[in-house]
Structure formats: C-alpha cells, structure tokens
User: Which sequence fits this backbone?
C-alpha cells in the first residue's frame, strides 16, 4: 500500500507529540485508539508520522508516540562512527597483505 509521505514540520510534529503525551499514549502499554488521538492532527500528517515510525501501533487498533530518548541519539551516532572506523581499519589491514 502506498502512503504519501508529506514533510512533517517541527510545529506539526510537536503538536502531534503533545496530543499523544496529553492522552498518555507514550508506550505500547498506554496506547490509545486512533479516535482519541486524531483531534487536531491532519490525516496526511498522521500517515506520514506512522510511516516514519514516530507513531507506532500497540495492541491492534491502538497507537502511541515513539521517539528515542534524547541521550540515545548521540550514542547511536557515536556507535555508527566507531563501527565505520573499524570497518575501514579492517579493510586496510586486509588489503595490506
């Protein structure tokens, strides 16, 4: 199924996040039905956020807001950089033989 992805502005994303947080839908165990969460969220924006993974489905028919904790993002980036460097070093050692 094709889902048209529209850019989500920071303001639109913040509004959607606020709607989920105010409803308490911030984890799979606290997921809420879509009808409780869609007020003020454009259906196309909902689809875009669902496609990118910011909105996730908990139990069938219920949704919650997902985002990495702020301290996790730099750690993930650091891990990717370290792995890339290790791959480069391994390639250089392998090719130097």
Assistant:
């Amino acid at each position: 199924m094709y889902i048209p992805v529209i850019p989500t502005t920071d303001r639109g994303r913040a509004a959607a996040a606020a709607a989920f947080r105010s409803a308490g839908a911030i984890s799979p165990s606290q997921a809420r039905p879509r009808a409780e969460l869609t007020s003020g969220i454009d259906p196309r924006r909902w689809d875009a956020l669902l496609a990118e993974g910011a909105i996730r489905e908990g139990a069938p028919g219920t949704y919650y807001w997902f985002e990495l904790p702020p301290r996790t993002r730099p750690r993930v980036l650091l891990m990717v950089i370290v792995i890339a460097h290790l791959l480069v070093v391994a390639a250089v050692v392998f090719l130097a033989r």
Observations:
- The chain has two domains: 10-65, 69-97.
- Residues 72-95 form the longest helix (24 residues).
- The first strand starts at residue 32 and ends at 33.
- The beta strands are 32-33, 55-57, 62-65.
